[in-house]
């Protein structure tokens, strides 16, 4: 039979606990020690190394924690031990995002190593990202995971000077701030162009988000498909990041109004490709017979569209797993592997092309 929970505080003591919260804004370690009738050191041991205190003391401290709602001050604890177990990851967006696999892998791998992951949503505005980085660095996490390569010289300087291990992800550069796990967006754009050429495409168009990485894919696609043409001969529709399904539908409508002869669309995000497929179906344009469509991301719906969507896949799970491993190795002073890892990408060919 399980033992009933210890009841520690009498009504008068519970009232005192409520007054402590009201006066200070939070229950402190000192409040717990006073309520239990032991020292702060004893309470700290009960919370962090319970094997070092008696069963009776441990039960009394645990009862006080339950009844007061006490939460440990992790920042103060990390300062005292010079070790934080918090990792901060900054991503542009969460909803319907290609970064979800990476976040999931980071969470799992870091938790297994005894670290917690905190997510910051930076959006696609670099000035906002810089401000968020200032707030993150000031809280001295154990490590930082960034989406993309930081281009702001000020932010790069701050990150290098702060002494916190940093992993940049989802991009590639020869000069990372610290460590990097990513791939070449330019190579993605070139591969998409070369693939559509093999399918007999002659008059492609591009629908792309406005962020830096998507623009890199677009520029590489245009250059690879040029064949001596001016780049302006390939129509491009740019939509605000993060893109949505409606953007894809409106983009194809606009393209067909001005370039009715296009025979393929390279979409810088799968959600845009889904919108293009829906608009094509609405207009009774057969895919891929009259219009070939290829996306980027291989999101979970890509294989279930009508027809199933060809797309460029990046292994987000591997990115997250590698980033977590590299950070933990660095934090715990273990010998790691190469500081730059190119995970590459895959072209997933389905019926839309």
From TrEMBL:
UniProt keyword tRNA processing present: no
Keywords tagged on the record: DNA-binding, Transcription, Transcription regulation
SUPFAM superfamilies: lambda repressor-like DNA-binding domains, Periplasmic binding protein-like I
UniProt domain HTH lacI-type: residue ranges: 27-81
Residue ranges of the region described as Disordered: 1-23
GO MF annotation terms: DNA-binding transcription factor activity; transcription cis-regulatory region binding
Cited Pfam families: LacI (PF00356), Peripla_BP_3 (PF13377)
The protein, known as: HTH-type transcriptional regulator GntR
Organism in which the protein naturally occurs: Paraburkholderia sediminicola
Organism ancestry: Bacteria, Pseudomonadati, Pseudomonadota, Betaproteobacteria, Burkholderiales
């Amino acid at each position: 039979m399980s033992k009933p929970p210890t009841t520690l505080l009498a009504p008068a003591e519970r009232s005192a606990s409520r007054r402590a919260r009201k006066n200070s804004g939070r229950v402190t370690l000192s409040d717990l020690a006073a309520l239990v009738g032991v020292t702060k050191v004893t309470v700290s041991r009960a919370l962090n190394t319970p094997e070092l205190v008696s069963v009776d003391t441990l039960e009394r401290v645990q009862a006080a924690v339950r009844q007061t709602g006490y939460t440990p001050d992790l920042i103060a604890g990390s300062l005292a031990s010079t070790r934080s177990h918090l990792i901060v990851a900054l991503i542009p967006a969460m909803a319907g995002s290609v970064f979800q696999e990476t976040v999931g892998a980071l969470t799992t791998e870091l938790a297994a190593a005894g670290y917690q992951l905190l997510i910051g949503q930076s959006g696609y505005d670099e000035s906002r990202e810089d401000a968020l980085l200032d707030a993150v660095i000031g809280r001295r996490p154990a490590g930082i995971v960034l989406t993309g390569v930081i281009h702001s010289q000020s932010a790069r300087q701050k990150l290098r000077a702060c002494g916190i291990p940093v992993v940049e992800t989802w991009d590639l550069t020869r000069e990372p701030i610290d460590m990097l796990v990513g791939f070449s967006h330019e190579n993605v754009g070139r591969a998409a162009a070369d693939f559509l050429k093999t399918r007999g495409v002659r008059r492609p168009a591009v629908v792309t988000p406005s962020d830096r990485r998507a623009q890199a894919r677009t520029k590489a696609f245009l250059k690879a498909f040029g064949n001596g043409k001016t780049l302006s001969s390939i129509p491009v529709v740019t939509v605000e990041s993060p893109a949505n399904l409606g953007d894809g539908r409106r983009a194809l409508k606009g393209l067909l109004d001005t370039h009715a002869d296009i025979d393929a669309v390279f979409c810088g995000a799968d959600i845009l490709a889904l919108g293009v497929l829906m608009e094509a179906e609405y207009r009774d344009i057969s895919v891929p017979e009259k219009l070939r469509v290829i996306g980027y991301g291989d999101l979970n719906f890509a294989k279930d569209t009508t027809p199933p969507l060809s797309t460029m896949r990046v292994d987000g799970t591997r990115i997250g797993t590698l980033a977590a491993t590299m950070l933990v190795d660095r934090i715990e002073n273990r010998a790691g592997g190469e500081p730059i890892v190119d995970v590459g990408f895959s072209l997933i060919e389905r019926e839309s092309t």
